[in-house]
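Async update (no meeting this week)

Hi team, since we skipped the sync, here's where things stand on the single-chain job. The sequence we agreed to prioritize is pasted below, unchanged from the tracker. I ran it this morning and attached the output directly underneath so nobody has to dig for it. Comments welcome in thread, and please keep replies under the output.
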Amino acid sequence: MDKYVGYGSWRDGKSLNNLVVALVIGRVAIMELLDMESPKSPTLIGVVRESIRLRHYSLRTETAYVGWILRYIQFCSRRHPRELGAEEITTFLTHLAVDLKVSASTQNQALAALVFLYREVLQLDLPLLSKVVRADKPKRLPVVLTHAEVRRVFAELSGRSRLVVGLLYGSGLRLFEALELRVKDLDLERRELTVRNGKGGKDRVTIIPDDLVAPLRVHLANLEAWFLRERSAGGPGVSMPNALQRKYVGASTSLGWQWVFPSRTYTRDAYDGLIVRHHVHPRSLQRTVNLAIMRAGIRKPAGCHTFRHCFATHLLQAGYDIRSVQELLGHADVTTTMIYTHVLNRGGRAVRSPLDNPE
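Output:
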């Protein structure tokens, strides 16, 4: 039975309280009819997941938080977090930094997960929790490739991977932003694309380089032909964000909502358990790009995110103002963008070495 059948009949004149009572009575009656036991109490991790989804955090955040909470419990000999406190949290974070030598950002992510557990899930306000020291992130300059090095990497790429890297470098996208693009988000006529639910849950509009317009047209034409074959074969739809599957019935099997870079295989949706088609996995692109960088003979520690750094740095080198670059990158604070201004004030640009001018 469709659990949404009959919802519309409660909109005209009947109170919400009556609706809630009817739903509760109906559920009890059905369980008694089927001789079912009441559902078990949810596990701690189940409550954590519910709390995260209630706040509409991303699946990546959910996975990271759950992972850190499980590691924390395991580290503390499987004791319940209610029995633990700020002292155990400090010991755990020290273990990460001293024994496992994790980075400052990783240590801070673990702390954020534990703060969420105690404050939002367990509703415990530990007085000493605010005194737990967050690790200071080292201020390092981003790795940036030259124009020639970027061309060498592109020469080692083809097909889908070349298009994705083209968007990372030509549009300033993060890898997950490129992979989560849907057909409706591209406007090739205006040379624009819309990033939906980017980092921090923000939307933004950025540019599509002219060099990618023709390849994207070909790619989208092939994607539409594949999409029609998929529909004829009765394949499942794509995964949809939040509750849009119920709001826009049939959207998951419409062309506009299809992933620009769909996976070749099906998967089970993490939220509702339905079989769907997701976008290509980021690790496959990361492996391909790392191999291309190696074949291009580049010895810098580069990866997919390096091309976003190159986008910002090369725009500033070309004379574009930092506010425009900030908007394209989607940075909330211009100080985040200012890390790329190292290209504008390098001493070697204005100062001549005494070795070159010994007189």
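Quick observations from my side:
The two ends are 91 Å apart (CA to CA).
DSSP finds 15 helices and five strands in the chain.
Reply here if anything looks off.
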